[in-house]
Amino acid sequence: MKNPSSFDLPFASSAKPGRSARAARRPLVRKTNAKRSAFQLRLALRPTTASEAVRFIDAVGFCLLFPVKSAPLPSLYYACARRECTTWDKYCLRIWSWKDELPRRRRAFYAKYFKGRGTFISPKLLPHFLAIEESAWSAHDFDRAYAAGRITADARALWASLAGHGPLATLELRHACKFDTVAGNKRFKKAMLELSRRLIVVHFGAEQETDSWASSRFELTSRAFPAAVAAALRVSPAEARRSIAAKYRACHPDAGARTIARLFGWSKAEAMGAQPEGL
């Protein structure tokens, strides 16, 4: 069986050369007290159901689907398997279904965000991510975003099609935008990644369009998570960065401004502004 997407399944070791496998399997949260907090206990549980996966995502705030070497973030795969991902296994099957189910049921946001890889964001923290990306757009704001130079022409075409037709699967969306050729498919992937990294679109389930693996289905974030978009308008980027950085430090208490700036793509000043007083 072939992997459904090498883009989402790196199957690469998260450990640096020379490190032992035991060191690579470090806890998700460093134990700072003899008695673990309720937060740490939630992370210690291995999700076996969709509801438990949602609790994990809400606890960490945001996480990757699979571990990515260059992104020091929790991953849903590691939470389930407690080991590196080296092959397509039962845990891959489990979380692969969750990345379709959870956003479709609006229990978690999912898009290719960090490093262009599959990322879950808790709906509770989604307004803050939308605020820092300045992506609290309405469904029909594609012309305004394009005129402001926020998106490319191809991204505008995808956005306009989703605004006009509602949720669409990959081949349907490519056809609607006249991206049917091989060259068109490359343009489609580039534009979709652009919209995903700006959190303008959300992965919204899957649809069996061919005899191969099911295709991704996409929806506009403004329609799938309208409350989060509305809330984002009331959050300043600076406040959003402080909340996101605080959530990250809950899992990585030793993370400094440089690490946070590199991970989130913030400037040094923005990362320093997100640090708590005294650090």
Secondary-structure blueprint:
Layout: H1 21-24, H2 38-44, H3 50-60, E1 62-64, H4 76-81, H5 90-104, E2 109-112, E3 118-121, H6 126-133, H7 142-147, H8 153-165, E4 168-169, H9 170-176, H10 182-197, E5 201-207, E6 215-220, H11 221-224, H12 226-232, H13 237-251, H14 257-264, H15 268-273
Antiparallel strand pairs: 1-3, 2-3, 4-6, 5-6
Helix pairs in contact: 6-12, 6-13, 8-10
Characteristic terms for this protein:
Arc Repressor Mutant, subunit A; disordered N terminus; three-stranded antiparallel β-sheet; 15 helices; mainly alpha
Helix content: 40-55%
Report how far the terminal alpha carbons are from each other.
49 Å
Determine the mean pLDDT: 87
Oligomer: single chain
Trace the largest sheet across and list its strands.
1-3-2
Number of helices: 15
Strand segment count: 6
Radius of gyration: 19 Å
Largest sheet: 3 strands, antiparallel
The secondary-structure element order is HHHEHHEEHHHEHHEEHHHHH
- Provide the structure class: mainly alpha
How many separate structural domains?
Answer: 3
Shape type: globular
- Tell me the strand percentage band: 5-15%
Low-confidence stretches: 1-36
Written overview of the protein:
The strands form two sheets. The protein has a three-stranded antiparallel sheet with strand order 1-3-2. Strands 4-6-5 form a three-stranded antiparallel sheet. Residues 1-36 have low confidence and may be disordered. The chain contains 15 helices and six strands. A hairpin with a 5-residue loop joins strand 2 and strand 3 (118-121). Helix content is 48%, strand content 9%. Helix 6 (126-133) packs across helix 12 (226-232). It has three domains: 21-124, no CATH class; 134-232, Winged helix-like DNA-binding domain superfamily/Winged helix DNA-binding domain (Arc Repressor Mutant, subunit A), CATH 1.10.10; 237-273, no CATH class. The protein has helices at 21-24, 38-44, 50-60, 76-81, 90-104, 126-133, 142-147, 153-165, 170-176, 182-197, 221-224, 226-232, 237-251, 257-264, 268-273, and strands at 62-64, 109-112, 118-121, 168-169, 201-207, 215-220. By secondary structure, it is mainly alpha-helical. The protein is globular and about 50 Å long.
